[in-house]
Specification:
heterodimer, A: alpha/beta, Rossmann fold, B: alpha+beta, 13 strands, globular
Chain lengths: 387, 359
């Protein structure tokens, strides 16, 4: 298929793999401990496992799977709020598909739907607005979720609803923003990352300049990466090359999509509709300053949080979960004490097992395999418990 | 010409009643005259065979006739609730016949007789019902089976979605044929009879909620004839299953688990329409998990793989058949995909439905 096959060429992958091996061999510190590269975005995590990209890299490179899966980092209390909204008889609750399975403290939206709530899957917030027009006697709530990637389409939908004066449409806003979160990770005292793969689609909106502080203030190299397997491999090569040459810069591998200054129209819509919250709670990471947005007072009529009273409880993550450590790169998914036992994609306890973009689910689905000749079985007990 | 046609018409048709109503109502399920009119005018007229026309509560067949085909009876049932009722490449009627015929055929059986039970929603157009029943008869003829008994229920508006169909079927397994999900052996070859995911894609597109359009028809077709041709080429077929809900990935996992072997498949060998691949790329779906309604996975001894493949290619239902992988010892119970990119990954059972990703 045109524009897809070009980015999955096995010959080019082998060539890149050889280049990366050669580069890593020149880096002295990689011989003492592996280089850690964090892929910030869940889409990259998914690609890495789906295409087996780790198999092209030397042992001296480790991926640390970052916080960029919006479904995974949604705290349980917010899911409970969703369920409470969805269970109101007048409400049609609309959501992206992969948020349906996220467990709340009592149930997921999928379970709420089975129990009788009117929960519908949509592909775009505009589909939710269309539902509101078609069902004037019902309240249609859209579950706004995601980083800057999905924020503009939600903002545009609120502006559209305002322009058309659709009064039975509202937004339950759980949008989060990536930069404060990367900062919080960089400020962790026990963190030792050598570089980043920057998120592709977020950067299409916010631009590559937003990451300048990572190179300037923290001295870490970052390459903004596309999502096809060759994109990811080339980006790894670019990060490793920076490390080998002692540089720390913002580089853009995904130039076909990401401009330096972002998408001005999208950013304007976001700024018009949203403002920063003082704090937002992240599953596995805790509360992070200025990491979420809420609807501005001007559009309060479309804000489900103002329109309805919500339980708004803070629910602690299950005690056994080690999602936080995995998110910070201190543990690999299979090293969590409940990975593959109490916590599986069928019965996810931790956030990272919920979405296919979550590091643990991706590892469980695609990665539980000994790639050295496929001789060993799935993850061994030792892998699961050895830390 | 006219004379000949009337001679060929079954005796029963002379006393067929005609239905006056244009839509199904509750009296059509009441057991009275209206129901009899519906059954005679719609079902008996279309399915057109003496056993059904006798209007008994059951169909009866002599053992001796069955024994001509083999030495064991195969028996199965399936219920069909597809939305929309009509989609490119088929409708709920073609599905209801092909689905049960295929379940029988996957044991190696020759499918012979089907039942047809329908739950109709009050208000369903009789015209729609006739179209569905005509598709059932067309597919039954193609598959060489007869629909010999049936049942009709009507429920109030809202208590069912338009039309549900249950079909049960019997067939006869030829002597010496022994097919089971637990029979895969190291060194066997894995074959498929054509492109993956056509049905699942056609249904997704036909629901028209995605704002995506493409030209894919369901692959819905009966596979009894193809299986007979494959068995003629190699009576020792080890495993056979049609890859319906859960797709090819689910069937392969069932084989790997039941046989305690590893199944390795090659992404580049999987037959896939460009349109299906494109739709999956856009929607974030994996064609390995998409439903099919006319595709089977066969595991056959490696030395017979090319003979079976040739037999499949010679049959219309297998013209795009391909060898897609092999059975290995380890990692037992696991399906491993070699990606076109050059990596390898596990292909696991799906948890719940495939849900589209957020971004």
């Amino acid at each position: 298929m045109k524009y897809v096959d070009e980015f999955r060429d096995p010959g080019k992958a082998q060539a890149l793999s050889r280049e990366i091996h050669a580069l890593v061999a020149t880096i002295e510190r990689a011989k003492r401990q592996p280089l850690q590269i964090m892929e910030v975005c869940g889409g990259h995590t998914h690609s890495i496992f789906r295409y087996g990209i780790g198999q092209f890299l030397p042992d001296e490179i480790e991926f640390v799977h970052g916080p960029g899966c919006p479904v995974c980092v949604l705290p349980m209390g917010r899911v409970d709020d969703c369920v409470a909204l969805a269970e109101r008889p007048e409400v049609i609750f609309t959501t992206f598909g992969d948020a349906m399975r996220v467990p709340g403290s009592k149930k997921s939206l999928l379970k709420a739907k089975a129990d009788g709530a009117d929960v519908r899957m949509v592909y775009s917030p505009l589909d939710a607005l269309a539902l509101a027009r078609q069902n004037p006697e019902r309240e249609v709530i859209f579950f706004g979720l995601g980083f800057e990637t999905t924020m503009p389409s939600t903002a545009m939908t609120v502006l559209q609803a305002d322009a058309e004066n659709v009064r039975n449409f509202s937004l339950f806003c759980n949008h989060i923003t990536i930069i404060p979160t990367i900062k919080a990770i960089l400020d962790e005292p026990d963190l030792r990352l050598d570089g980043f793969l920057g998120p592709g689609h977020v950067s299409m909106v916010i631009g590559s300049a937003a990451y300048d502080f990572i190179a300037r203030d923290y001295g870490k190299p970052i390459t903004i990466a596309g999502f096809e397997p060759l994109d990811v491999l080339q980006s790894v090569w670019m990060v490793v090359k920076q490390i080998a040459e002692g540089r720390a810069e913002v580089e853009n591998q995904y130039g076909r999509v990401v401009p330096r200054d972002g998408n001005k129209v999208a950013l304007a819509a976001v700024a018009e509709v949203f403002e920063l919250r003082e704090f937002f709670e992240w599953r596995g990471l805790g509360s992070i300053e200025h990491s979420g947005v809420r609807v501005r007072q001007r559009y309060a009529a479309f804000d489900a949080e103002r329109k309805f009273s919500l339980p708004n409880l803070k629910i602690a993550d299950p005690q056994a979960c080690q999602c936080g450590e995995v998110l910070k790169g201190l543990l690999k998914p299979q090293q969590c004490r409940i990975f593959g036992t109490a916590c599986t994609p069928r019965t996810p306890l931790g956030a990272l097992m919920v979405s296919t973009e979550g590091a643990c689910a991706a590892f469980y689905n695609y990665g539980r395999i000994d790639t050295s000749g496929l001789s060993a079985s799935k993850v061994t007990k030792e892998d699961q418990h050895g830390r | 010409m006219d004379d000949k046609a009337s001679v060929n018409r079954p005796a029963s048709s002379r006393r067929l009643r005609t239905l006056r109503e244009s839509h199904v109502n509750l009296s059509h399920g009441s057991g009275g005259k209206a129901m009899r009119d519906l059954i005679e005018d719609v079902f008996v007229a279309a399915f057109d065979n003496p056993q059904l026309a006798a209007m008994e509560d059951q169909a009866v067949f002599p053992f001796a006739e069955l024994a001509l085909h083999g030495d064991r009876l195969a028996f199965t049932t399936d219920t069909f609730v597809v939305d929309p009722l009509f989609f490119p490449g088929g409708d709920i009627g073609t599905l209801a016949v092909a689905g049960t015929v295929n379940d029988l055929a996957m044991s190696g059986a020759r499918p012979l007789y089907l039942s047809c039970a329908m739950v109709l929603e009050e208000g369903l157009s009789i015209e729609v019902l006739r179209r569905v029943v005509a598709s059932m008869q067309r597919t039954a003829q193609l598959a060489g089976v007869t629909i010999v008994t049936g049942d009709t229920k009507v429920v109030e508006r809202g208590a069912a979605d338009k039309l549900f169909i249950n079909t049960a079927g019997v067939g006869v397994v030829p002597a010496g044929v022994s097919i089971s999900a637990g029979n895969a052996r190291v060194g066997d070859a894995v074959l498929i009879n054509g492109t993956l995911g056509d049905h699942g894609t056609a249904i997704l597109i036909a629901r028209n909620q995605l704002g995506v359009s493409c030209d894919v028809a369901s692959d819905c077709q009966p596979l009894g004839g193809l299986v007979a041709a494959m068995l003629a080429a190699c009576p020792d077929i080890h495993c056979l299953r049609d890859a319906t809900r859960g797709g090819v990935a689910t069937v392969l996992n069932e084989f790997a688990e039941s046989s305690n072997v590893a199944i390795r498949i090659d992404e580049d060998a999987l037959p896939l329409r460009e349109e299906v691949r494109g739709a999956c790329e856009i929607l974030g779906l994996d064609p390995l998990y998409l439903a099919n309604e006319g595709k089977l996975i066969a595991i056959v001894p490696g030395e017979h793989a090319s003979a079976v493949l040739a037999a499949m290619h010679a049959h219309p239902a297998g013209k795009d058949a391909a060898i897609i992988g092999e059975v290995c010892a380890a990692p037992a119970g696991t399906v491993v995909l070699s990606t076109g990119f050059g990596g390898q990954r596990i292909v696991d059972m799906l948890v719940g439905e495939q849900l589209p990703r957020i971004c």
